Records
---
Amino acid sequence: MSKRAKKADTMAQALRKPTQEETRSYYDRIRELVEADRVDAARALLGEAVEKGNHGENLAGWQRVLAPAKAVRVGGKKAPDPTPDFQWLKDHADSYRGQWVALLGGELLTHGPTLQKVVDDLESHPQKDWILLHRIH
Amino acid sequence: MLTLRGDRFTCGRATFSDSSPFQPEPTAKVFVRVWFGKLQKALLTQVDTGAAWSILAPDVAQAIQVPLAAGDPATLSTRFGIKQGLLVKVGFTLIAEEGDHLDTEGTFFVTEDWPDGLNFLGYSGLLDSIRFALDPQANHFYFGPGI
């Protein structure tokens, strides 16, 4: 492209009327894409907004929730096989519908109508990590 | 653990439940044990690659004190209809019986208008960022950090 043509193109870009889409806020456009489950498009638009930089919008929230999940740590003591607890749920669910149950090694430790009640019941249990909590609907 | 072309693909293995007495749908699902926040107890949670977003039940969100004030409002289409709620980052752990647990942080939708105790691990901002594989014959769920 010649210098003159390049200058004309730059001027045309500067004088171009923004489309209706471009006059709407990045925040709203990203939200609409998120709500339409178009997450990749939302991330791309967020990237464009961050690159552009001078839009005057606070997009920190979208940057946070659209960021990929980050592995924080791997490791820890191995968990016991949950199969006995899964079997208990198959065998006894009908008797506990609408309740939270707490299971360990295929045995019912406690049950109740709310998660908080069951958690409170288990406050002093020595094997907290391996207890399976489940609400039977 | 699983390897891919000689490199580690996953870090942990868990047994999953493929049926649930609390689900009205008769088709097989994948339910794994997860620790959420500082609850220190495992919750049976459905892995749902078909769900755009992960969902955390309101009573669980309350129990682990999810900072809802930092959430972003959103209206999402769910299996129970259109719901208004918040998108928030929540720390959780995939529990391994073999290998290592995976501590990570994913984006969850939290709404008051949702059944207690019903949690899902969905695709965006969570499953799309880790590696996972299924062995349906053995009911094994393999998982590891994304690259």
---
Amino acid sequence: MQNEVILKVETLTKRFGGVVAVDDVSFKLQKGEFLGLIGPNGSGKTTLINLITGFVKPTSGKITYREKEITGKAPYTIACLGISRSFQMVRTFHKLPAFKNLIVPLYSPRVKKLGGGKYGERDDIAVDLLDDLGFERDSFVPYKVAGSLPHGYLKRLDLARCMALRPDLLILDELFSGMAMSEVAATLPMIEKFNREGLTIVMAEHRLKELFRVANRVIVLNFGRRIADGPPKEVMNKEEVQKAYLGTEVEG
Amino acid sequence: MTEAVRYRRERIDRGIKARSDSIFMLSSYREMLYLVLPRVLPIAALLCLPLAMGGSYWGKVIFYACIFALLALSWDLLASVGLVSLGQALFFGIGSYVAGGFNFYLKWPIFLTIPVATLGGALICTVLLVPVVRLRGVYFSMVTLIIPLLFDHLIETLGILGGTHGLLSLTPFPNHWLAIYIAVIAVVGCLFGFRRMITEDYGLVLRGIKDDDRVVMAGGINIYWYKAQAIFIASAVGCFAGALMTHYYQFVGRSAFALDNTILPLAGAVLGGPGSFAGATLGTFILVPLSEALRALGGLRMALYGIILIAALAVLPEGIFHYIERKYHQFERDVRI
């Protein structure tokens, strides 16, 4: 299964009126790759993710997922093909207990088709998934109302929601934003583990130090353009990248 | 040596809830009664009330209350999916006219017209509303408000389906009791059925669409398909209410699309507390008899009705049912320590 292209983005462009949010971006993603997506604020990272996952329709360009064109398809169709995404601003069903948040993806046609997760079993699967992500089953945390949980837990709940869909491609939009250092340190190995188990991951992130520990390839966006692509070390040495960041956010 | 017996006050519902809201640990009949009473009481009341009233004027009022309770339940279901409907009159009117039309023109018997009106009417309503499920918030409400008015004017100007006179002398129910008990059983069935449905996994998905439809889409669920399903279920209930009313009155006219049929169930649901179904039922069973009782006042009736409604909403904005529910969970007992 080596060198199988899972996602192909060709000359993707999105204009919001006069603003070109994503400008002629092309790249290929191999199966099992861990791609970091970085760039200054407003460089088009989230728009690119929204384009791939169908939440925003592209102005032009083509997106192919596993040799199937998904350009402009509905978000739920794309999710059912196995692309799961998290949201930058935490989005949970705050009135429901944490584990009930996972019922929605577990109820999707994709998970139903993959087998399991029928009838009352969904609750158990949800608690299992949360347990894997640090919601200790014997504590009351998985059963607490989501709205009462701290932000770090909500971010991990969002990650669990993505994993509940049993994705082949996981797209994380600034998972670490607003997380404490200890929470980041606890979550990072989990994501690494998912990647080692064969999951392809795209991760938009501002915390470069943590990202570079796990990502084996980085794409840098600036004003919607892809200005660099390659292993983290090489990319950060490029003059253009350093200019884009003005030296302010480059760590280590 | 006698030691003083000491007691501690404890909430009843704390002790019997095991971990979640749906698993209970019961150790006495009192605890069972605590759980069973709020469920049995409304059923018993609904089944006994018509017997107590008999065929009198107030017996008919109970029938009207059931009809509006069905419409309120249907409104509450749509509201649970985030679709705020102002078109209960659409469901009611379509159900009325389908039942009335088949009975008047084709002489279909009553046991055929009501099911056909329920399912066929729901299909018509769903087809009418599916193009606008992508609209959110007030835009969806406006469309649902306009469609019944549209039908009203179509019937008036084209003179179809009896035009301004309506369809007269339709088949009545064999007797008053059958009509009223069909209505009562429908209300009980919908009330408990919807309450169960909304806590099942299916209902969680529906409620998820209300909370955050983008997350539900990211979860791989076609929200428009689920919204269409919710519209079908809700409009089936509304059409059923319309069909019952048509045969009870033995008449269907343009009044079926009147705004009253939208506003009264909505007021009932808001007064009782939306989102719980029980609140919607309770609210209409307060408002309908109240509006009948105020009939004696003549012209001042609607004004006083409005004042009572505003006062109730100002004092209990959460809704009567949510208030009662909260207080019920706060019941305490003495526990020996």
